[in-house]
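STRUCTURE REQUEST FORM
Protein name: Aminopeptidase P family protein
Source organism: Shewanella metallivivens
Requested output: structure tokens
Priority: standard
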Amino acid sequence: MSNNIATRLNAIRQQLEVNQIDAFIIPRADEYLGEYVPARNERLHWATGFTGSAGMAIVLKDRAAIFTDGRYTVQVRQQVDGSLFEYLSLYDDPQIDWLIDTLPAAASVGIDSRLHTLAWYQQAKAQFDKAQINLVEVNNNPIDVSWLDRPAPSASTMTLFSHEGAGRNSVEKRQQIGALVKKQGADVALIAALDSCCWLLNIRGNDVPRFPVILGCGLLSANGDMTFFTDLAKVPNNIAEHVGAGVSFKEESELASVLAKMEGVKLLADPHSANAYSQLLAQKGGAKLIAGTDPVAIPKAQKNSAELAGMRACHIRDGVAVSRFLAWLDSQVEQHIMHDEAQLADKLESFRLQDPLYREPSFDTISATGANAAMCHYNHNNGTPSTMTMDSIYLVDSGAQYIDGTTDVTRTIAIGKVTDEQKKMVTLVLKGHIALDTARFPKGTSGQQLDAFARQYLWQHGFDYDHGTGHGVGHFLSVHEGPQRIGKNVNGVALLPGMVLSNEPGYYRADGFGIRIENLVAVQPCQALQGAEREMYEFDALTHIPMDARLIDKSLLTDFEVNWFNQYQQKVRQTLAPLMQGDELAWLNKVTEAI
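Status: completed
Returned output:
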């Protein structure tokens, strides 16, 4: 591989000469700036060999560096040749500062402005200007020019998403969002997020792994009319009837010329999520940029009754699939048959595959035995999968894309005997999970305000975890949907009825074990609250999968918490029992007995 990479680096360096630049920045992101990147856009991987989900490389004429975060310190050294790249930190070694320290004044740094947000571009340009370094937008990305065996774009066609499943047709949605565009003082909005475009048009696609969207970009007018720029070969013949009046489809390559002719148009765009290229081009073409958030984000996040019905239905079927896997796992352990992490992940998917509405995983399954689970974003595909051992803990975090919704669940499982210390830690995590699940909060409360509910018991004992407590989840869309989040330092977006989030506190002991207990919950108005003076909300759990009572130290739970646990397990049993039989049903009845 490293011979390959050395050859590729040389090709990139030849392009530095062609473009008369001294450095080129290679982010992980592609032009859609989403979390998931199609194989043909994995430029960072092509240039370095690194497969992680976050990182950046910088190639100079005589040296190169790769920047990754704490999740990837081990992996980057396994995958990237240290004789070709220096290993640096995304956070401790800010890339622009590093370039300023490395390059002389009057040097030129090249970027492909499609792969960076406008906010990043503006900040980088300001820093470079001070240091008298030129920031150059390169027309032909050196990687795209050099990557001769680049994978072809996905050829799968767009799928039409039923208006019944969506709860509303595209015309209603576009008019609602158009009114929001007008309210922000704009004529047109750049709809750059792939899931926002798909939600607006009630379409889905198969262009990006784990994320059922079609590649493209939208321009939405204040009157609700929309142009969607995409690969026209993917657009089915009956599309006009499906999306309703006011939508036109154009080749994605035409977006640039449309943006360049926006003289006098007030264009709403999100500088933090839409790419710099589009906004700079519109600005050069005479548009007035109005910086704002994606107007689709909040309406999309607030699921309507049809979307919530789909989410509930798919969570019950998903509950059956995962429970059948857990029943199988227990029987294997009883027979002392130990599988590796990859076999376990494949076996879990085999149960989901029996559902005709299942499409694909909603993210790469985290199947982690023993010490591997202490790396909270572990991926068994990045090395040799470990085999389970007796008397350990197994953590499995997985999710599914179904036609009627998206799931994400983590269960922590006892394999044989576990220590009292492990039980204590699982129980502290469970207490936090229960505290968040049962929280009531007034309208206007953000996920940042609720985060400490989930951490309080760990904190009391001097422990914590280094990830957020909850992320939003889409409706047969992104398993990591914004803007709603629960975390220490997240945005102040208020949680609103219909939003779906994860509740997933955890604990990780380096080289020891990892614990996470995750359910998805929907925000709803408080059902049984008398005499409230404020509009109050609560969470309703969507996930129906047993939790492992063998890992719990009941003496650390209050009566309220014991009741919550028993009621949750009982509800799981009542919901799933009619859909299970034989040994699997016997297993379900046994593991959901009251503690």
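Reviewer notes: The chain has a mean pLDDT of 96. The two ends are 54 Å apart (CA to CA).
Form closed.
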